[in-house]
């Protein structure tokens, strides 16, 4: 994470290229003037330490960097559903949604939330979109129903992918 400015991705990708790394995947975003992300890089064991050292040098420029090395590919759940929620905003809504998902053993793989003003009333709206893994022994509609029980005004949509 660092203060947002042009050239951040260029800097990171340049360091990866300089150390013969292959940029496989990334998730990056700007929020409240900060730029944060996760990058998955494939690199030889011989140059991994050199890459880690080069990335650590960015810390002297105010970057917050965490490097993790993995020898093998971790098995991860693949998203099987898209979740969309819209409702009146209130304190604790993210916690309540997360608690319902956890109680149904739903794994959140990607989560995007936003605070917006409703078009007609200017009321505060909570909006979220997520990619999730719902276990095969769980019914998608049961998860949606449990989320809708959090509030009368909550609109929940779950689509299988």
Automatic annotation (TrEMBL):
Keywords: Cytoplasm, Repressor, Transcription. Pfam families: ACT_4 (PF13291), ACT_6 (PF13740). One of its GO terms (cellular component) is cytoplasm. Its main location: cytoplasm. SUPFAM superfamilies: ACT-like. InterPro entries: ACT-like_dom_sf (IPR045865), ACT_dom (IPR002912), GcvR (IPR016867), UPF0237/GcvR_regulator (IPR050990). GO terms for biological process: regulation of DNA-templated transcription. It is found in: Cytoplasm. Gene3D superfamilies: 3.30.70.260. Residues 82-161 form the ACT domain. It comes from the Bacteria. This is Glycine cleavage system transcriptional repressor. It comes from Bermanella marisrubri.
